[in-house]
Amino acid sequence: MSLFSENILSLGTENAFKMGQHILKAEDKLGSVTKLNLGEPDFPLPIHIKDEIKRQLEANNTHYCDPKGLLTLREAVAENVSQTRKLDVDPERVVVFPGAKPSIGFVQQAYCSKGDEVIYPSPGFPIYESFIKYVGATPVPMHLHESNGFVWCPEKFASLITPNTKIIYLNSPSNPTGTVLSYEQIEEIAEIICRLCSKEVRVYSDEIYEKILFDDNEHVSIASMPGLEDRTIISSGFSKTYAWTGGRIGYAVFPTTKEAEVFKNLNINYFSCVSPYNQEAARVAINSHLSEKYVSEMVSIFQKRRDIIWDIFAGLNGVSCNKPGGAFYLFPNIGDVCEDLGILDYYEHMFKVDRSCMSPSGLFQNFALYHHGVAVLDRSSFGQLGSDNEHFIRVSIAADLQVLEEGIDKLSNAMVDKNGMNIFLDERPDCNLFPE
Ligand code: PMP
After folding, report:
1. How many angstroms does the Cα of residue 435 sit away from the middle of ligand 1?
2. Whole-number percent of the chain with pLDDT over 90
3. Which of 14, 32, 52, 168 lies at a CB distance of 3.0 to 4.6 Å from 284, suitable for a disulfide?
4. Which pTM value belongs to this model?
């Protein structure tokens, strides 16, 4: 008899949360590590939100509450989403979750049966892919390419749709590429969905970076397109916009109240409810006039950093990098670097079983960490299926400029350190993190 269920063994993960142990080990060896791996804004929670949490705690708002989310917050969300997406959202269609993440897996539990297909962007947020086999569905990655700025190719997308398609994940602005889809691009995707998919197919529109936009980019939700409101789950939250990843507040707007009730029941089964004092503070985050100033200052700092760091990458030999239009990541292609450092050759000769849990850019990621003291994430951290021949790293710009420049300096040293790479490949200090 085996200890674990078959299902649990097929559950993937988010590598970002597994980096911590490697960073500790590298810090042990090197003294310090420059962390460009973080998916959270490096800003404090705005004071007006903090004050509301304190006020709510003083008022003893610390008990169980509505598993669907406090009506006060759901009303604020409904009004905000209605305004920003030009829709008419009833608060009963809104469900509050502990972060934007839980609804990603919940939709697969709620809508997918065995054999149903799930289309998701790759590179993309890893949780879209990690759940699919766990629920018995079939992963269908929609590969996005650097050559066209990681936007969705309409013909390719249409070719992936079959009678078994059940869920389609969309994410703009994107983690990890920073790509922002335009109105026309989203309109085209919407038209394909209306033409080729049955009404029971659900689009999960992950809009968590909706406010982190550069240049003159505007956020467009696919739910605003004709015929799509009834098929789309709009997901967003407070982690990125208000630098509040530890608050664990997110929400989703469902096409119907009936569907929202199914998710409320999932909440009841898993965690009962989300902390009410944080929910009231999230309501303040939406409604306070102070929020807009805070967010726009944060975004303009991200944009300045993006400009500076993107310029540095543009000048590095063997590296190409798209200019992100939003979010707070750069996603440089390091294919030539992997070739020059002998990583591709080494990878080719690895045992198949070892290759299955490592990628060439993963070897570079670990080399950069253990030998040069800089933490980034590799391509396979953003979708594994079919990504073997793609060599990218994700560099977060959620750090002070000085820290960023120090990190990029270390990365560029790593990129030409053949000698160091040979030693790393000989020693592989990244293996046996938890020896049996
Ligand atoms: N979607 C995307 C695209 C993300 O990048 C993240 C966080 N990294 C989430 C969802 C989850 O956000 P939260 O922390 O609010 O659960």
Report:
1. 31
2. 95
3. 52
4. 0.97
